[in-house]
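seq as requested:
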Amino acid sequence: QVQLVESGGGLVQPGGSLRLSCAVSGGIFVANGMGWYRQAPGKQRELVASIIRGGNTNYADSVKGRFTISRDNAKNTVYLQMNSLKPEDTAVYYCNAYPFSRAFGQGTQVTVSS
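struct tokens:
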């Protein structure tokens, strides 16, 4: 059974930082490729960062230069370091296999507000 357990979200002021973690189990291996997605209220879920098998990373234009995706293959965990956060980054953040995603987990709420 696939399990995607996101953590690390919270309330942060604009300009602050958060580090999200996603522990993966049940047949998904972060070494094969992972993505971080987010869904803001009233909007569709979007891919914000991905890391593929070879290690290449890609970012949505809206987060480029501020977010960094990384992984620990031994722990089967993927991370998202988020710096210089903006109110428009407020969303529920999810991890999933990339490019072939499975069912999404619960996600972790990130709220950027003063």
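The chain is about 0% helix and 50% strand.
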